[in-house]
């Protein structure tokens, strides 16, 4: 600022020392001065023309003439120096105000750029905010669709597994029926084959001819049975092939659905990460937008404040120019008045001593004092003109005392006011310097504390981000291991199920065959034993044995030991064939016991296998459920850590920006503090000495006023 309140204090002006010299000169000869003034007063009172009086002796008037000339010269020089200093100060202030106006333009331009940038950021962030909100809405919609697809895929997978179970049960039933039919047909083929070979059925030991014995009949039935057995075998093969195709198709479908579920889970995880990042970006954009919205009114206020300050400074400059012009005009008018009055009232002897080459007081008082010289009458010192100058200066002293005394007093008072104003300005400057230095030192300390706090926060956030990254990597590795273990367990469960189903089928078929064998044996051994020949002979006195077409009648009485007087000749005894029953009843019972034991053992094994299978299914389902829960928990932990990492990253970048801003602000404040020290240290250090010197100058000026008013002593300064 170029105002007087903010200018560096100027050293005491030469006019003050001129005033002190005036005091000293005035004190040199008060009696002669007052006598000259009294004489001038008497002359004016009696109306006697000064030119009619005889000039005094130059030898007697040499002392008063010199004193009067010196006094007038001091007053003239003081006014001239004051005018010169005013002009010099005006030039300096003109340069300062030009610099200030340039600063105003630069400051306004810079802040306008900042405002434009803030407005641009506001617009960009507003658009980005809308885009991120739309992105978040789309991601949330996509996640809803993915969740719906996951549910549908899970339902389809459950339905497919249920259909597979039903198909497996139907396949087992079909295979059981096929096996039973094949076994029965095989047994029938064996029976028909024996009939075909023997030519009939053996009933009660007698071969009986039936229609099947006719040529072609037995072969026809046997062929049908064999064809039926072949058809059942082909049907079994087709059932097995169809079951294998169905299992392959079902396995491929289940595998596809599981891959689809896995793909949906991965896509869902990616969408969640994108949603989290979008939400974090949205918060950052909102923060930047709010910062811009807060910054815009501050910058606008700063621009308005700068404009108001510059306008006020311009207005103050115009007022200072007008005031300074009035001051210069007053001084010039005073000088011109003194010059004109002296030139009009001086005697011809006084006017004759003026040098033609010397500038007039009027021109000197107009402002240009660079080459001005004192008036000619104070330079003249020839002895030939002393007598006339003595009388003229006496009259000039009286005239100056009467006509310009008030102007001189006004000048002295103005000088005192200037010194007092300078003192007030300097006191205000000192107070401002102290307050500014204290404030800037506090700002520096606060900035350093803020920077230290930000550095600590940055280091902490860096450490947290590294820790979170390591945890996310570890969790992802655990998820990969979990997925691999689950896939291995799924493959093992599939093999175990396949093995259990195969063993169960074989075991059930074996149990069925054992039961059928037991039923056949039990049915056989439960029939009447017709092969017990001894019991037949005991039960029937005679029996007929059909041996081909011959019929042999055996009479018991004709047997050895019978009636020997009979006319009937006793036949020859038949050779020995067998005795007892042909049935292996005991062996059959043992075999049936073994079959029953085998049936019970296989049934127990099947029950144990079923229990183990159910336990394995339950354990696998629990493993799947636990794995899914662990997967979801791990994904939630990963998402939470990534969210925290993203949030910390945003805060870290914000802290780094704030730290850079604080460091930049600290550099600015330190530069301002350095400039304040350069500006204020000397002022604060020398304020007491300058105040003391200025107070003494003011006291001297007051003594001058007292002496001009008629006092003979300088009571304040003791001069």
UniProtKB/TrEMBL annotation:
Residues 1-35 form the signal peptide. Keywords: Coiled coil, Signal. Residues 47-66, 351-383, 558-583 are annotated as: Disordered. Residues 122-156, 258-302, 465-499 form a coiled coil. Residues 351-372 have a biased composition (Polar residues). It comes from the Eukaryota. This is Uncharacterized protein. It comes from Alexandrium catenella. The lineage of its organism: Eukaryota, Sar, Alveolata, Dinophyceae, Gonyaulacales.
């Amino acid at each position: 600022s170029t105002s007087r309140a903010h200018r560096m204090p100027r050293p005491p002006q030469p006019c003050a020392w001129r005033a002190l010299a005036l005091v000293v000169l005035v004190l040199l000869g008060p009696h002669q001065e007052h006598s000259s003034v009294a004489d001038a007063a008497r002359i004016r009172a009696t109306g006697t023309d000064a030119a009619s009086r005889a000039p005094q002796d130059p030898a007697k008037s040499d002392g008063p003439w010199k004193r009067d000339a010196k006094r007038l010269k001091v007053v003239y020089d003081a006014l001239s120096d004051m005018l010169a200093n005013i002009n010099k100060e005006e030039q300096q202030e003109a340069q300062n105000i030009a610099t200030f106006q340039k600063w105003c333009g630069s400051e306004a331009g810079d802040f306008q750029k900042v405002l434009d940038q803030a407005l641009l950021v506001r617009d960009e962030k507003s658009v980005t905010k809308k885009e991120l909100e739309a992105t978040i809405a789309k991601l949330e919609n996509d996640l809803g669709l993915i969740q719906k697809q996951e549910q549908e895929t899970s339902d389809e997978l459950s339905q497919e597994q249920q259909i597979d179970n039903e198909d497996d049960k139907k396949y087992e039933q079909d295979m059981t029926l096929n096996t039973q039919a094949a076994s029965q047909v095989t047994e029938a083929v064996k029976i028909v084959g024996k009939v075909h070979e023997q030519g009939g059925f053996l009933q009660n030991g007698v071969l009986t001819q039936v229609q099947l014995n006719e040529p072609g009949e037995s072969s026809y039935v046997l062929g049908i049975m064999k064809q039926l057995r072949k058809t059942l075998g082909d049907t079994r093969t087709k059932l097995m092939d169809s079951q294998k195709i169905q299992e392959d198709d079902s396995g491929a479908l289940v595998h596809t659905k599981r891959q689809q579920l896995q793909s949906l889970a991965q896509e869902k995880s990616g969408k969640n990460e994108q949603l989290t990042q979008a939400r974090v970006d949205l918060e950052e954009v909102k923060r930047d937008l709010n910062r811009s919205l807060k910054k815009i009114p501050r910058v606008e206020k700063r621009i308005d404040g700068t404009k108001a300050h510059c306008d006020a400074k311009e207005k103050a400059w115009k007022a200072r120019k007008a005031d300074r012009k009035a001051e210069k005009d007053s001084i010039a008018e005073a000088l011109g008045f003194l010059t004109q009055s002296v030139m009009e009232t001086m005697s011809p002897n006084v006017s004759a001593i003026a040098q033609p080459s010397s500038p007039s007081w009027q021109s000197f008082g107009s402002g240009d004092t660079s080459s001005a010289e004192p008036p000619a009458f104070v330079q003249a010192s020839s002895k030939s003109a002393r007598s006339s100058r003595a009388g003229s200066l006496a009259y000039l002293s009286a005239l100056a005392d009467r006509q310009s005394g008030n102007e001189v007093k006004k000048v002295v008072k103005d000088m005192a006011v200037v010194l007092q104003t300078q003192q007030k300005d300097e006191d205000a400057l000192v107070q401002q310097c102290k307050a500014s230095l204290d404030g800037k030192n506090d700002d520096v300390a606060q900035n350093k504390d803020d920077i230290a706090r930000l550095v600590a926060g940055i280091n902490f956030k860096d450490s947290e981000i590294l820790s979170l990254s390591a945890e996310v990597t570890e969790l992802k590795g655990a998820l990969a291991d979990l997925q691999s273990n689950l896939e291995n367990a799924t493959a093992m469960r599939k093999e175990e199920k396949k093995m259990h189903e195969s063993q169960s089928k074989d075991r059930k078929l074996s149990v069925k065959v054992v039961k059928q064998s037991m039923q056949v044996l039990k049915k056989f051994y439960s029939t009447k034993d017709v092969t017990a020949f001894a019991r037949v002979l005991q039960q029937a006195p005679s029996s007929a044995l059909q041996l081909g077409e011959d019929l042999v009648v055996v009479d018991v009485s004709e047997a050895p030991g019978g009636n020997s007087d009979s006319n009937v000749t006793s036949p020859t005894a038949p050779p020995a064939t067998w005795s007892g029953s042909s049935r292996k009843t005991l062996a059959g019972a043992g075999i049936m016991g073994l079959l029953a034991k085998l049936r019970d053992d296989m049934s127990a094994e099947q029950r144990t296998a079923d229990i183990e299978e159910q336990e394995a299914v339950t354990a696998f389902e629990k493993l799947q459920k636990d794995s899914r829960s662990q997967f979801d928990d791990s994904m939630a932990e990963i998402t939470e850590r990534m969210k925290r990492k993203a949030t910390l990253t945003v805060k870290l970048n914000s802290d780094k920006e704030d730290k850079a801003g604080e460091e930049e602000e600290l550099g600015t404040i330190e530069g301002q503090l350095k400039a304040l020290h350069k500006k204020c240290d000397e002022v604060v250090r020398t304020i007491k000495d300058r105040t003391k010197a200025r107070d003494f100058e003011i006291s001297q000026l007051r003594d001058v006023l007292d002496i001009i008013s008629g006092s003979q002593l300088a009571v304040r300064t003791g001069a």
